[in-house]
Specification:
8 strands; three-stranded antiparallel β-sheet; binds nickel (II) ion; Peptide Deformylase; five-stranded antiparallel β-sheet; 30% helix
Length: 193
């Protein structure tokens, strides 16, 4: 077990495309997965991709806090439980349609900043579990957003590169002063991620 330092925007590993994992239950991958859990817990994030701890392999760890799902459930009328920290190996995302929605995102590799990023609203995902089982399912809303953010790290993409209006890239401290209660709430939630 090891807490590894999280690389910041500008580090070359964060610009690379990560390699697929060829064999899941090797000592190297088992150690990487432990380190992702330890590093994410230490940093207090909800998602972490292997390149962020300097390992250019297609592995992500992500979670969705129950309160985020609950907030969306109230809006959509659906019951959506949270998602406990989950490892996805070699994930593939397939958007359900071209429809994108804007939402605030922060990233452990871009500390102090926050931005409004358009993301596909619904998608299907497919990946391998740490045991080598196929994991697949549908995601929407915040769940879909987290998956897109984490999987982008595997292609050397950080969220500012997905933004279409850079006026909404700002220091978190400034974003918290936005004079709109709905935006302020969304910013606060994104910073808790
Ligand atoms: Ni990130």
């Amino acid at each position: 077990m090891a807490i590894r330092p999280i690389l910041r925007m500008g580090h070359p590993v964060l610009r690379q495309s990560a390699r697929p994992v060829e064999s899941v239950q090797t000592p190297e991958i088992i150690e990487l997965i432990k380190d992702l859990y330890d590093s994410m817990a230490a940093a207090g994030g909800i998602g972490l991709a292997a390149p962020q701890i300097g390992v250019p392999l297609r592995v992500v760890l992500y979670s969705v806090p129950a309160q985020r799902m609950a907030a969306e459930a109230t809006e959509s009328g659906l019951e959506l439980p949270g998602i406990a920290p989950t490892i996805l190996i070699n994930p593939i995302l397939s958007p359900a349609s071209d429809h994108k929605v804007d939402g605030w995102e922060a990233c452990l590799s871009v500390p102090g900043l926050i931005g409004r990023v358009p993301r596909y609203e619904k998608l299907r995902f497919r990946a391998l579990s740490p045991e080598g089982m196929i994991l697949e399912g549908d995601a929407q809303g915040f769940h879909a957003r987290v998956l897109q953010h984490e999987c982008d790290h595997l292609d050397g993409i950080l969220y500012p590169q997905q933004m279409t209006d850079l006026r909404w890239l700002m220091f978190a401290e400034e974003a918290q002063k936005l004079n709109d209660p709905k935006e302020t709430k969304a910013v606060t939630e994104a910073l808790e991620d």
